[in-house]
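Ligand-bound model needed. fe (ii) ion.
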Amino acid sequence: MVETRDEQSFAEWLQDGGKVEAGDWMPDAYRREAVKIAGFQAILEVVPMPMFYKFMCYAPSFRRKRILLAKVQDEIGHCHITCRVLEDLGKPREALFQEYADGRVHLNYPFHFPVDDWCELPGMLLATNSAALVQFRSLAHGSYLPYVRALRKILREESFHFYNALEWAHELIKDGTPSQRTKAEAGLRKWWHIAIYQFGPPEGTVSGARDWRRWQIKVDENEKLRQEWITMMLPIFRSLGVDPDPRLQRAPESDGWRYSPLDWQHFTRVIREDASPYHTWLNDEFKRFLREDAWVREALDLTAAA
Ligand SMILES: [Fe+2]
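Prediction:
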Protein backbone atom coordinates (compact mmCIF):
# COMPACT_ATOMS: atom_id res chain seq x y z
CA MET A 1 0.00 0.00 0.00
CA VAL A 2 1.24 3.51 -0.75
CA GLU A 3 2.52 5.41 2.26
CA THR A 4 2.68 8.85 0.71
CA ARG A 5 0.01 11.53 0.55
CA ASP A 6 1.79 13.49 -2.13
CA GLU A 7 0.75 13.42 -5.80
CA GLN A 8 4.26 13.42 -7.25
CA SER A 9 5.54 10.68 -4.91
CA PHE A 10 2.41 8.66 -5.67
CA ALA A 11 3.11 8.93 -9.41
CA GLU A 12 6.73 7.84 -8.87
CA TRP A 13 5.59 4.92 -6.72
CA LEU A 14 3.28 3.84 -9.60
CA GLN A 15 6.17 4.09 -12.09
CA ASP A 16 8.05 1.65 -9.83
CA GLY A 17 5.20 -0.85 -10.11
CA GLY A 18 2.94 0.25 -7.23
CA LYS A 19 -0.63 -1.07 -7.33
CA VAL A 20 -3.73 0.54 -5.86
CA GLU A 21 -6.76 -0.98 -4.10
CA ALA A 22 -10.18 0.65 -3.76
CA GLY A 23 -9.74 1.75 -0.13
CA ASP A 24 -6.21 3.13 -0.61
CA TRP A 25 -5.39 6.80 -0.58
CA MET A 26 -5.10 8.23 -4.11
CA PRO A 27 -4.77 11.74 -5.54
CA ASP A 28 -7.95 13.22 -7.03
CA ALA A 29 -6.30 13.32 -10.46
CA TYR A 30 -5.65 9.57 -10.30
CA ARG A 31 -9.24 8.90 -9.23
CA ARG A 32 -10.50 11.07 -12.12
CA GLU A 33 -8.37 9.14 -14.63
CA ALA A 34 -9.62 5.76 -13.34
CA VAL A 35 -13.23 7.01 -13.45
CA LYS A 36 -12.74 8.36 -16.96
CA ILE A 37 -11.36 5.12 -18.42
CA ALA A 38 -13.74 2.73 -16.59
CA GLY A 39 -16.72 5.06 -17.19
CA PHE A 40 -16.03 5.21 -20.90
CA GLN A 41 -15.94 1.43 -21.01
CA ALA A 42 -19.17 1.02 -18.98
CA ILE A 43 -21.03 3.23 -21.49
CA LEU A 44 -19.54 1.55 -24.57
CA GLU A 45 -20.53 -1.90 -23.27
CA VAL A 46 -24.24 -1.11 -23.63
CA VAL A 47 -24.71 1.76 -26.09
CA PRO A 48 -24.78 -0.60 -29.14
CA MET A 49 -27.83 -2.34 -27.63
CA PRO A 50 -30.33 -0.74 -30.09
CA MET A 51 -28.29 -2.00 -33.04
CA PHE A 52 -28.25 -5.56 -31.68
CA TYR A 53 -31.93 -5.33 -30.87
CA LYS A 54 -32.65 -4.32 -34.49
CA PHE A 55 -30.68 -7.29 -35.86
CA MET A 56 -32.22 -9.68 -33.34
CA CYS A 57 -35.62 -8.91 -34.84
CA TYR A 58 -34.66 -10.33 -38.21
CA ALA A 59 -32.04 -12.96 -37.36
CA PRO A 60 -32.27 -15.75 -39.95
CA SER A 61 -32.36 -18.54 -37.34
CA PHE A 62 -33.36 -19.05 -33.73
CA ARG A 63 -29.78 -20.08 -32.96
CA ARG A 64 -28.36 -16.77 -34.23
CA LYS A 65 -31.07 -14.83 -32.39
CA ARG A 66 -30.21 -16.64 -29.15
CA ILE A 67 -26.47 -15.99 -29.58
CA LEU A 68 -27.09 -12.27 -30.12
CA LEU A 69 -29.33 -12.16 -27.07
CA ALA A 70 -26.63 -13.91 -25.00
CA LYS A 71 -24.09 -11.36 -26.23
CA VAL A 72 -26.28 -8.44 -25.15
CA GLN A 73 -26.74 -10.14 -21.77
CA ASP A 74 -22.95 -10.47 -21.41
CA GLU A 75 -22.46 -6.80 -22.32
CA ILE A 76 -24.98 -5.72 -19.67
CA GLY A 77 -22.98 -7.87 -17.22
CA HIS A 78 -19.77 -6.10 -18.26
CA CYS A 79 -21.46 -2.76 -17.70
CA HIS A 80 -22.48 -3.87 -14.18
CA ILE A 81 -18.98 -5.07 -13.32
CA THR A 82 -17.44 -1.81 -14.53
CA CYS A 83 -20.11 0.26 -12.76
CA ARG A 84 -19.24 -1.49 -9.47
CA VAL A 85 -15.62 -0.41 -9.96
CA LEU A 86 -16.87 3.13 -10.56
CA GLU A 87 -19.11 3.12 -7.51
CA ASP A 88 -16.16 2.18 -5.29
CA LEU A 89 -14.37 5.18 -6.79
CA GLY A 90 -17.29 7.39 -5.78
CA LYS A 91 -19.04 7.61 -9.14
CA PRO A 92 -22.69 6.44 -9.07
CA ARG A 93 -23.97 4.81 -12.25
CA GLU A 94 -26.88 7.26 -12.40
CA ALA A 95 -24.39 10.13 -12.66
CA LEU A 96 -22.47 8.30 -15.39
CA PHE A 97 -25.54 7.66 -17.51
CA GLN A 98 -26.76 11.21 -16.90
CA GLU A 99 -23.47 12.53 -18.30
CA TYR A 100 -23.97 10.33 -21.32
CA ALA A 101 -27.60 11.49 -21.71
CA ASP A 102 -26.41 15.11 -21.49
CA GLY A 103 -24.00 14.52 -24.39
CA ARG A 104 -20.85 14.81 -22.27
CA VAL A 105 -19.43 11.44 -23.40
CA HIS A 106 -18.04 11.21 -26.94
CA LEU A 107 -18.40 7.68 -28.26
CA ASN A 108 -15.54 5.81 -29.87
CA TYR A 109 -14.89 6.08 -33.62
CA PRO A 110 -16.55 2.76 -34.71
CA PHE A 111 -19.85 3.93 -33.19
CA HIS A 112 -20.21 6.43 -36.02
CA PHE A 113 -20.54 3.79 -38.73
CA PRO A 114 -23.64 1.70 -39.43
CA VAL A 115 -23.84 -2.02 -40.08
CA ASP A 116 -25.99 -2.12 -43.20
CA ASP A 117 -26.63 -5.82 -43.54
CA TRP A 118 -26.86 -8.99 -41.47
CA CYS A 119 -23.92 -10.45 -43.43
CA GLU A 120 -21.80 -7.43 -42.47
CA LEU A 121 -22.34 -7.98 -38.75
CA PRO A 122 -19.70 -10.72 -38.19
CA GLY A 123 -17.06 -8.53 -39.89
CA MET A 124 -17.92 -5.65 -37.57
CA LEU A 125 -17.92 -7.88 -34.48
CA LEU A 126 -14.69 -9.64 -35.43
CA ALA A 127 -12.76 -6.42 -36.11
CA THR A 128 -14.04 -4.30 -33.22
CA ASN A 129 -14.10 -7.15 -30.69
CA SER A 130 -10.52 -8.13 -31.43
CA ALA A 131 -9.44 -4.50 -31.11
CA ALA A 132 -11.22 -4.30 -27.73
CA LEU A 133 -9.52 -7.54 -26.65
CA VAL A 134 -6.10 -6.09 -27.41
CA GLN A 135 -6.99 -2.90 -25.50
CA PHE A 136 -8.42 -4.77 -22.48
CA ARG A 137 -5.45 -7.15 -22.29
CA SER A 138 -3.19 -4.13 -22.04
CA LEU A 139 -5.41 -2.30 -19.52
CA ALA A 140 -5.37 -5.47 -17.39
CA HIS A 141 -1.73 -4.62 -16.59
CA GLY A 142 -2.72 -1.27 -15.12
CA SER A 143 -2.20 0.03 -11.61
CA TYR A 144 -5.80 0.13 -10.32
CA LEU A 145 -6.41 -3.46 -9.17
CA PRO A 146 -10.25 -3.50 -8.89
CA TYR A 147 -10.42 -2.47 -12.57
CA VAL A 148 -7.72 -5.01 -13.49
CA ARG A 149 -9.75 -7.82 -11.87
CA ALA A 150 -12.92 -6.62 -13.63
CA LEU A 151 -11.12 -6.68 -16.97
CA ARG A 152 -9.82 -10.22 -16.44
CA LYS A 153 -13.37 -11.45 -15.96
CA ILE A 154 -14.65 -9.42 -18.93
CA LEU A 155 -11.81 -10.66 -21.15
CA ARG A 156 -12.92 -14.27 -20.78
CA GLU A 157 -16.37 -13.46 -22.14
CA GLU A 158 -15.05 -11.12 -24.82
CA SER A 159 -12.88 -13.99 -26.08
CA PHE A 160 -16.02 -16.03 -26.48
CA HIS A 161 -17.62 -13.18 -28.50
CA PHE A 162 -14.52 -13.05 -30.66
CA TYR A 163 -14.66 -16.79 -31.47
CA ASN A 164 -18.38 -16.53 -32.13
CA ALA A 165 -17.80 -13.73 -34.67
CA LEU A 166 -15.04 -15.77 -36.29
CA GLU A 167 -17.23 -18.88 -36.58
CA TRP A 168 -20.04 -16.77 -38.00
CA ALA A 169 -17.82 -15.08 -40.60
CA HIS A 170 -16.42 -18.47 -41.52
CA GLU A 171 -19.91 -19.92 -41.96
CA LEU A 172 -21.01 -17.10 -44.31
CA ILE A 173 -17.83 -17.15 -46.36
CA LYS A 174 -17.35 -20.90 -46.65
CA ASP A 175 -20.95 -22.12 -46.72
CA GLY A 176 -22.96 -19.01 -47.68
CA THR A 177 -24.53 -18.15 -51.02
CA PRO A 178 -22.36 -16.08 -53.43
CA SER A 179 -24.24 -12.96 -52.33
CA GLN A 180 -23.75 -13.72 -48.61
CA ARG A 181 -20.07 -14.39 -49.22
CA THR A 182 -19.60 -11.11 -51.10
CA LYS A 183 -21.34 -9.11 -48.37
CA ALA A 184 -19.44 -10.85 -45.57
CA GLU A 185 -16.08 -10.21 -47.28
CA ALA A 186 -16.98 -6.57 -47.95
CA GLY A 187 -17.96 -6.27 -44.27
CA LEU A 188 -14.61 -7.60 -43.13
CA ARG A 189 -12.78 -5.17 -45.40
CA LYS A 190 -14.91 -2.19 -44.32
CA TRP A 191 -14.53 -2.90 -40.58
CA TRP A 192 -10.78 -3.47 -40.76
CA HIS A 193 -10.42 0.13 -41.91
CA ILE A 194 -12.69 1.37 -39.12
CA ALA A 195 -11.29 -0.80 -36.28
CA ILE A 196 -7.71 0.22 -37.09
CA TYR A 197 -8.67 3.71 -35.82
CA GLN A 198 -10.10 2.27 -32.59
CA PHE A 199 -6.75 2.55 -30.79
CA GLY A 200 -6.61 6.30 -31.33
CA PRO A 201 -3.82 8.45 -32.78
CA PRO A 202 -0.15 7.65 -32.22
CA GLU A 203 1.54 9.56 -29.44
CA GLY A 204 2.54 13.07 -30.44
CA THR A 205 0.08 13.44 -33.33
CA VAL A 206 -2.60 15.21 -31.31
CA SER A 207 -1.76 18.38 -29.43
CA GLY A 208 -2.83 18.63 -25.81
CA ALA A 209 -3.05 14.85 -25.31
CA ARG A 210 -3.19 13.74 -21.67
CA ASP A 211 -0.10 12.37 -19.99
CA TRP A 212 -1.60 8.91 -19.59
CA ARG A 213 1.69 7.33 -18.53
CA ARG A 214 1.69 9.23 -15.25
CA TRP A 215 -0.94 7.07 -13.56
CA GLN A 216 -0.13 3.69 -15.14
CA ILE A 217 -3.83 2.87 -15.57
CA LYS A 218 -3.31 2.78 -19.32
CA VAL A 219 0.15 1.30 -19.79
CA ASP A 220 0.70 0.92 -23.53
CA GLU A 221 0.90 3.46 -26.33
CA ASN A 222 -1.87 3.42 -28.96
CA GLU A 223 0.44 2.58 -31.85
CA LYS A 224 1.92 -0.42 -30.02
CA LEU A 225 -1.59 -1.82 -29.52
CA ARG A 226 -2.52 -1.14 -33.16
CA GLN A 227 0.56 -3.07 -34.28
CA GLU A 228 -0.34 -5.98 -31.96
CA TRP A 229 -3.85 -6.03 -33.41
CA ILE A 230 -2.56 -6.14 -37.01
CA THR A 231 -0.19 -8.99 -36.13
CA MET A 232 -3.02 -10.89 -34.45
CA MET A 233 -5.76 -10.24 -37.02
CA LEU A 234 -4.07 -10.18 -40.41
CA PRO A 235 -3.59 -14.00 -40.57
CA ILE A 236 -7.20 -14.47 -39.46
CA PHE A 237 -8.56 -12.12 -42.15
CA ARG A 238 -6.36 -13.81 -44.73
CA SER A 239 -7.57 -17.25 -43.62
CA LEU A 240 -11.06 -15.98 -44.46
CA GLY A 241 -9.84 -15.02 -47.93
CA VAL A 242 -9.73 -11.28 -47.26
CA ASP A 243 -6.61 -9.14 -47.68
CA PRO A 244 -7.84 -6.03 -45.90
CA ASP A 245 -5.17 -3.54 -46.90
CA PRO A 246 -3.03 -4.05 -50.02
CA ARG A 247 -0.45 -1.59 -48.67
CA LEU A 248 0.21 -3.63 -45.53
CA GLN A 249 3.79 -4.78 -45.34
CA ARG A 250 6.38 -5.57 -42.73
CA ALA A 251 8.39 -2.65 -41.39
CA PRO A 252 11.79 -4.24 -40.71
CA GLU A 253 13.03 -1.19 -38.80
CA SER A 254 10.36 -1.60 -36.10
CA ASP A 255 9.41 -5.26 -36.39
CA GLY A 256 5.87 -3.96 -36.98
CA TRP A 257 3.67 -3.13 -39.97
CA ARG A 258 3.32 -0.33 -42.48
CA TYR A 259 -0.30 0.29 -43.41
CA SER A 260 -2.32 2.70 -45.54
CA PRO A 261 -2.11 6.22 -44.05
CA LEU A 262 -4.73 7.10 -41.45
CA ASP A 263 -6.43 10.49 -41.43
CA TRP A 264 -6.34 11.65 -37.80
CA GLN A 265 -7.91 15.02 -38.57
CA HIS A 266 -10.89 13.22 -40.01
CA PHE A 267 -10.94 10.91 -36.96
CA THR A 268 -11.01 13.84 -34.53
CA ARG A 269 -13.69 15.63 -36.57
CA VAL A 270 -15.89 12.51 -36.61
CA ILE A 271 -15.67 12.05 -32.84
CA ARG A 272 -15.93 15.72 -31.86
CA GLU A 273 -18.77 16.61 -34.21
CA ASP A 274 -20.75 13.42 -33.49
CA ALA A 275 -22.92 14.22 -36.50
CA SER A 276 -23.25 11.02 -38.52
CA PRO A 277 -26.87 9.87 -39.04
CA TYR A 278 -26.07 6.45 -37.56
CA HIS A 279 -24.47 7.93 -34.43
CA THR A 280 -27.49 10.20 -33.97
CA TRP A 281 -29.87 7.25 -34.38
CA LEU A 282 -27.88 5.05 -31.95
CA ASN A 283 -27.76 7.76 -29.29
CA ASP A 284 -31.41 8.72 -29.68
CA GLU A 285 -32.49 5.09 -29.48
CA PHE A 286 -30.35 4.28 -26.46
CA LYS A 287 -31.54 7.41 -24.66
CA ARG A 288 -35.12 6.44 -25.50
CA PHE A 289 -34.43 2.96 -24.04
CA LEU A 290 -33.19 4.60 -20.84
CA ARG A 291 -36.15 7.00 -20.70
CA GLU A 292 -39.05 4.82 -21.72
CA ASP A 293 -38.16 1.16 -21.19
CA ALA A 294 -38.38 0.11 -17.56
CA TRP A 295 -36.66 -3.21 -18.33
CA VAL A 296 -33.55 -1.44 -19.61
CA ARG A 297 -33.28 0.66 -16.44
CA GLU A 298 -33.91 -2.47 -14.37
CA ALA A 299 -31.27 -4.42 -16.30
CA LEU A 300 -28.75 -1.64 -15.68
CA ASP A 301 -29.86 -1.09 -12.05
CA LEU A 302 -30.69 2.53 -12.81
CA THR A 303 -33.20 3.95 -10.37
CA ALA A 304 -34.20 7.06 -12.31
CA ALA A 305 -34.65 7.79 -15.99
CA ALA A 306 -31.61 9.52 -17.45
FE1 LIG B 1 -18.22 -6.37 -23.31
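DSSP finds twelve helices and two strands in the chain.
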